[in-house]
């Protein structure tokens, strides 16, 4: 079979509309791949006993896209058999239980895509300039990922 | 034919530095504020005149001069200069007119 017709692609999107698992999985499907692995990050309704009303995300959009491209490049170096990678992140208001991020990776066999998806979300949380604000009933809080190496670790 | 001094004057002007700056060599950079830093500064972006050559800590001090409320987050932020992360400290920067400098509070994507 002629693999040059299915050139590996990265699909990166930051958008304010609701994310679609169907759309993201279909982006990475390939006739050469037996596996599509997915991660969906959804918004929780509570944090340390406080009720979360909603979440709001903002991004340094141009740099976030560049950093996600770097993650994709690293994935392809570590797992050369990975075919397509899709990372969709929502910005603006995200209601509880809706997806804030969906990552999909395809590969011929399942081990690589499963590992690559985990690497993508872990590295995204450490390096991509996106911020989440949790809105509670009486206050709000800018969250800090524990993966962020410059965050103030003592709370 | 221009003298060497007049040629240097014209070159500096062409690079976006005001003539007659006496060698202090400042330039205009775009400063972007995000998340908590945007709330403290009260804005999302502005143009600031800063020295072209300085450490990242000195750059922070220039920005705090313009927005003193930012001082409270000094221990938590890094910069992104031309979209590369830079810690606040001794790292020496050479800025170009129009460079993007972003204040990056702790991130929480995903």
UniProtKB/TrEMBL annotation, chain A:
Entries under Pfam families matching the protein: MoaE (PF02391)
GO cellular component assignments: molybdopterin synthase complex
One GO term of the biological process aspect: Mo-molybdopterin cofactor biosynthetic process
GO MF annotation: an example: molybdopterin synthase activity
Domain of life: Eukaryota
Organism: Steatornis caripensis (Oilbird)
This protein's UniProt keywords: Cytoplasm, Molybdenum cofactor biosynthesis, Transferase
Protein name in UniProt: MOC2B synthase
Membrane-spanning parts: none
TrEMBL record, chain B:
Record InterPro entries: Beta-grasp_dom_sf (IPR012675), MOCS2A (IPR044672), MOCS2A_euk (IPR028887), Mopterin_synth/thiamin_S_b (IPR016155), ThiS/MoaD-like (IPR003749)
GO molecular function, one term: nucleotide binding
One example of a Gene Ontology biological process annotation: Mo-molybdopterin cofactor biosynthetic process
Domain of life from the UniProt record: Eukaryota
Region (Disordered): 1-22
One GO cellular component term: molybdopterin adenylyltransferase complex
Annotated keywords: Cytoplasm, Molybdenum cofactor biosynthesis, Nucleotide-binding, Phosphoprotein
Amino acid composition bias (Basic residues), ranges on this chain: 1-11
Annotated pathway: Cofactor biosynthesis; molybdopterin biosynthesis
Name of the protein described by the UniProt record: MOC2A synthase
């Amino acid at each position: 079979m002629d693999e040059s017709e299915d050139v590996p692609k990265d699909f990166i999107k930051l958008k304010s509309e609701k994310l679609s698992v169907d759309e993201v999985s279909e982006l990475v499907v390939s006739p050469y791949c037996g596996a599509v692995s997915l991660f969906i990050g959804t918004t929780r309704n509570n944090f340390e006993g406080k009720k979360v009303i909603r979440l709001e995300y903002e991004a340094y959009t141009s740099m976030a896209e560049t950093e996600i491209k770097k993650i994709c490049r690293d994935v392809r170096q570590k797992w050369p058999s990975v075919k397509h990678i899709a990372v969709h992140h929502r910005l603006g208001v995200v209601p509880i239980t809706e997806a804030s991020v969906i990552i999909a990776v395809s590969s011929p066999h399942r081990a690589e895509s499963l590992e690559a998806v985990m690497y993508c979300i872990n590295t995204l949380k450490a390096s991509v300039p996106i911020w989440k604000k949790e809105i509670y009933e009486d206050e709000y809080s800018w969250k800090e990922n524990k993966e962020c190496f410059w965050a103030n670790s003592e709370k | 034919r221009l003298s060497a001094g007049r040629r240097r004057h014209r070159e500096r002007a062409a690079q976006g530095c005001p003539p007659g700056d006496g060698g202090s060599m400042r330039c205009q950079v775009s400063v972007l504020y995000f998340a908590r830093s945007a709330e403290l500064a009260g804005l999302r972006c502005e143009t600031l005149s800063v020295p072209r050559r300085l450490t990242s800590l000195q750059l922070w001090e220039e920005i705090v001069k313009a927005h003193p409320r930012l001082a409270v987050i000094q221990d938590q932020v890094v910069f992104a200069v031309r979209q590369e992360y830079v810690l606040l400290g001794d790292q020496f920067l050479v800025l170009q007119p129009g460079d993007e400098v972003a204040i990056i509070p702790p991130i929480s994507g995903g």
